[in-house]
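User: Hey, my collaborator sent me this sequence without any context and asked if I could get a structure. I don't really work with proteins. Can you help?
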Amino acid sequence: MFRIFIGYDSRFPEPAEVLAYSFRKHSTIPLDIRYLRLNELGLNRQHDPLASTEFTYSRFLLPHLCDFSGRALFVDNDMLCFGDVAEIANLDMTDLALRVVQHDYQPTNGVKMYGAVQTSYPRKNWSSMMLMSCARLKLWTKDVVETATGAYLHRFQDIPDNEIGELPKTWNTLDWMDDTTNLIHYTNGGPWYAEYLNHPHAAIWFQYRDAWLRDGGRPQGITARLPRNYVPAPLSGCGPLTPAAISPIHGTVLGW
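Assistant: No problem. I've predicted the 3D structure and written it out in structure-token form, which is a compact way to encode the shape of the chain:
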């Protein structure tokens, strides 16, 4: 099975659940999807006031969690998948430690999500989706993840540039989407926050959220207080989610 680890934030659990659902709905390969629940990882790291999520650092534990073997994909929780992740799973990783979408992202806002400070740094958002060759990432030991600076980890310091490959740009589009988008990243805040209910692409997230509920999901957080078929704005660039648009579910979703 292809291993996917989704960043999990106990304050807002629903986005991870909906993202996992969207991966499974479009996948043609079996998936082993796991949530990085901080209270289950034994990560002993001093609190960082600039960390905007509970998985700011735990994402770098994947090689350790996978016994430094095989490949695994990390994704932030504030995403939604429309493509077949087999495209990512089958990419050549010869001589590579990582594949990422190599954004040149310069944020213009000073605050994101629920009042978190927006920061700017080299390679920003590169670590939001990482295809890892775990055997080549033995430098990310549990001790290093617990003690290294955020800059060291998120900028991939000590990983040679020629070992950082690219993911197709359609697999991590930042707050926009069109007909080519395979995965959208609600990087400034998604519609599960009251402040972002009218995000330009909130409607498609709510379509997937409602499909997840119909298949047995349990509403949580801010969206639990909204009507079941809440649609904040007309869809643009993407039609409604229909049975013909989705594939059978493969694999399971597990806690760590």
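In plain terms: The domain at 2-255 is CATH 3.90.550.10 (Spore Coat Polysaccharide Biosynthesis Protein SpsA; Chain A). You can pass these tokens on to your collaborator as they are.
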